[in-house]
Recover the amino acids of this structure.
């Protein structure tokens, strides 16, 4: 989609992607401003130092481009709309995706509202994604760099948010982004990509979560109920997890590693199975809730589509059967491993992201669930 020449505020995070997004918009002749968002506050001095270092990188980019840089604190909105929702999910034994909530509520709502107060008509970020279609029927498109595509994390955006969004990196690959940043004189051209959860950063997840959730130890059991060890609290584990179980080898068992299969909230038991490809970890279907369709309405009939249940997973053929406006059953052509309640399933039609929902539970046709088949 051709970008109109108007006033755009770019979210400058201090990273190379948002820096090049701003560069491209300046080169296209737009009226560009930068905005550095602070979304988290705590007493961790390392985190504060990291935030200040990121702001310094954003400042260097803005100064190099000759654009103003604003600074805003969305920590209160983030805690209320993202973090508290995530804590509730963890308490319920589920594994939420805070990055999806952050995009929906902070980066494309609170940020957009603030940008409009600055006089902007649109906002831009360094996400690897694209926007197509016409006003009122916008589409979210996969990026040219399939390894960096971030539509999985953006699937919950609505028509109004997409109408105001600009993704300048849609057609670029990461190597080209770094090359452009180096040529522009950006000090962050070789800055490593962030790999941490958005509100945690590069810190130890269990240690961080333990500040806000009580540790409630209980037994780790195998699928037959035999006790193998003790867990720290169900909130600190997710389906498919291998690390951190501390079960070690057992003379009476094979040497294969253990993986989390399920959580028994009533009995406070963590259920594990042995082996990466244990049949219990596989499921052919799932039930999804909070389903969001980018078009604004669910399909009128079962939809043959592609889906992924985690970021960067190869797209999987499936059939989506809507159940009202915000629920759906998803049946996969091939069984999927480690479907984690609370994580997201996201739907695609080739290059278009259609929307997605939250995995409510995995379904097992062999246990009585209908097998609708996939064409």
């Amino acid at each position: 989609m051709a970008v109109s020449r108007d006033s755009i505020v770019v979210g400058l995070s201090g990273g190379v992607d948002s820096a090049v997004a701003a560069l491209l918009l300046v080169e296209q002749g737009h009226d560009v401003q930068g905005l550095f968002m602070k979304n988290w506050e705590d007493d961790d001095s390392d985190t504060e130092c990291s935030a200040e270092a990121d702001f310094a990188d954003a400042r260097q980019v803005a100064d190099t481009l000759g654009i103003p840089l604003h600074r805003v604190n969305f920590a209160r909105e983030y805690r209320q709309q993202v973090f508290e929702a995530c804590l509730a999910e963890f308490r319920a034994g589920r594994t939420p995706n805070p990055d999806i909530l952050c995009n929906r509520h902070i980066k494309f709502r609170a940020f957009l509202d603030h940008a409009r107060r600055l006089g902007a008509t649109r906002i831009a970020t360094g996400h690897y994604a694209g926007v197509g279609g016409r006003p009122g029927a916008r589409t979210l498109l996969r990026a040219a760099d399939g390894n960096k595509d971030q539509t999985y994390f953006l699937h919950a955006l609505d028509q109004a948010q997409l109408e105001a969004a600009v993704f300048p990196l849609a057609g670029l690959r990461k190597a080209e982004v770094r090359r452009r940043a180096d040529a522009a004189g950006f000090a962050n051209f070789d800055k490593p990509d962030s790999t941490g959860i958005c509100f945690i950063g590069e810190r130890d997840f269990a240690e961080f979560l333990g500040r806000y959730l009580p540790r409630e130890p209980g037994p780790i059991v195998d699928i037959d109920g035999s006790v193998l060890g003790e867990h720290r609290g169900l909130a600190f584990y997710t389906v498919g997890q291998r690390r951190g179980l501390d079960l070690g080898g057992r003379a009476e068992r094979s040497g294969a590693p253990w993986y989390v299969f399920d959580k028994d909230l009533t009995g406070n038991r963590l259920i594990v199975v042995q082996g990466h490809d244990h049949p219990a970890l596989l499921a052919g279907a799932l039930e999804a809730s909070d389903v969001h369709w980018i078009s604004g309405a669910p399909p009128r009939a079962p939809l043959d589509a592609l889906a992924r249940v985690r970021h960067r997973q190869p797209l999987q053929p499936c059939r989506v059967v809507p159940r009202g406006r915000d629920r759906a059953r998803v049946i996969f052509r091939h069984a999927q491993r480690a479907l984690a309640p609370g994580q997201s399933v996201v739907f695609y039609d080739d290059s278009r992201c259609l929307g997605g929902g939250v995995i409510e539970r995995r379904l097992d046709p062999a246990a009585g669930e209908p097998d609708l088949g996939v064409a």
